[in-house]
């Protein structure tokens, strides 16, 4: 019965040898429950996703066994590439908007584990046997329900790591074949792409605990010379948060007037793009607590994946770059993976 916490993965710099490998999907993790006509989609946090994907509910009633629990990923593809922004658009309070998007950007479900089938729980069954049962249970399933590719060949996994990024996937997940399903435990291993970029630090957000740095707001210059927000750098130890607040104090501006991002305060700009300070798609709450900084310092960060024109995940602090001029920090430095069609990954 829902909710069930999905099993998680810990990060590793290299793909470990001697176990089972799958691609790491860039979507919404979801545990799917089916009991006859009843379908429930549970998120990683346990919150229901069911109302946001009505087209998947109908497809899962058709393509899944009558009673089962599956672990997998909800994804949306556009032009053969995964599109995470299209998923974010689904988290909308208006049912009419959700149903419109379900028609124009339909979602798919990629299954990679089977937790229950009929009256039997499979959570204590070894990974290799759950995988066999998953393939058997979904052998007749059709688009938009897929079974994630799997291999036990390390060379194949390394090839997937390089190729699949071009379809929007962001790494490899390795699973010990004898492992049971352990909800909420970080017992799998994930290896993700990591690259570096030099970015302009143009603002900060205070930490929720007090007047120390919570995150740094990063920018890159586009071809027209405009400083675009590309993401945030965060996850500092507390002593570093305090030191950063003191270090950046000379760059603090009294107001946003004259700042490249001063339009963030307007409702029109918030409606036009995903900007810090805008309403969260998950909570609907608005947080305007950012501090503008003069865009004069350059920071090297590590990032794993680009979604559109922004970092898909939080970037990691590497070092200050006093040798770089802010104007030299452009999108041209970002690596573009060779495109790879998602249909080649899913065999459809």
UniProtKB/TrEMBL annotation:
Keywords: Ligase. InterPro entries: Adenylation_LigC-like, ATP-dep_DNA_ligase, DNA_ligase_ATP-dep_C, DNA_ligase_ATP-dep_cent, DNA_ligase_ATP-dep_CS, NA-bd_OB-fold, OBF_LigC-like. It holds the Pfam family DNA_ligase_A_C. One of its GO terms (molecular function) is ATP binding. Residues 6-192 form the ATP-dependent DNA ligase family profile domain. One of its GO terms (biological process) is DNA recombination. Its EC number is 6.5.1.1. It comes from the Bacteria. It is an enzyme of class 6 (ligase). CDD domains: Adenylation_DNA_ligase_LigC (cd07905), OBF_DNA_ligase_LigC (cd07970). Residues 211-324 form the DNA ligase ATP-dependent C-terminal domain. It catalyses: ATP + (deoxyribonucleotide)n-3'-hydroxyl + 5'-phospho-(deoxyribonucleotide)m = (deoxyribonucleotide)n+m + AMP + diphosphate. Belongs to the ATP-dependent DNA ligase family. This is DNA ligase (ATP).
């Amino acid at each position: 019965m829902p909710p069930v916490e999905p099993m998680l993965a810990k990060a590793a710099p290299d793909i470990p040898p001697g176990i089972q490998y799958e691609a790491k999907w860039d979507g919404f993790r979801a545990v799917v429950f089916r009991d006859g006509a009843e379908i429930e989609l549970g998120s990683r946090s346990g919150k229901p996703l069911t109302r946001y994907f009505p087209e998947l509910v109908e497809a899962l009633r058709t393509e899944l066994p009558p009673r089962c629990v599956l672990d997998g990923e909800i994804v949306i593809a556009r032009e053969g590439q995964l599109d995470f922004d299209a998923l974010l658009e689904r988290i909308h309070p208006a049912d009419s908007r959700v149903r419109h998007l379900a028609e124009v950007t339909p979602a798919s479900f990629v299954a990679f584990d089977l937790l229950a089938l009929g009256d039997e729980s499979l959570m204590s069954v070894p990974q290799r046997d759950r995988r066999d049962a998953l393939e058997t249970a979904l052998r007749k399933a059709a688009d938009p329900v897929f079974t994630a590719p799997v291999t036990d060949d390390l060379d194949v996994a390394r090839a997937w790591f390089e190729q699949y990024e071009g379809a929007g996937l962001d790494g490899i997940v390795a699973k010990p074949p004898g492992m049971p399903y352990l909800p909420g435990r970080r017992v799998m291993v994930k290896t993700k792409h990591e690259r570096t970029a030099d970015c302009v630090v143009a603002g900060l957000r205070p930490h929720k605990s007090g007047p120390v740095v919570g995150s740094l707001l990063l920018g890159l210059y586009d071809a027209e010379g405009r400083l675009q927000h590309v993401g945030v750098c965060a996850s500092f130890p507390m002593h570093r948060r305090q030191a950063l607040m003191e270090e950046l104090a000379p760059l603090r501006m009294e107001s946003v007037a004259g700042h490249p991002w001063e339009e963030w305060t307007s409702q029109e700009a918030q409606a036009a793009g995903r900007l810090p300070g805008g309403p969260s798609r998950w909570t609907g709450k608005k947080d305007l607590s950012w501090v503008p900084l003069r865009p004069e310092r350059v920071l090297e960060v590590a990032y794993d994946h680009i979604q559109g024109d922004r970092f898909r995940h939080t970037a990691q602090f590497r070092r200050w770059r006093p040798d770089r001029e802010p104007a030299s920090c452009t999108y041209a430095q970002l690596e573009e993976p060779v495109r790879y069609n998602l249909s080649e990954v899913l065999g459809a």
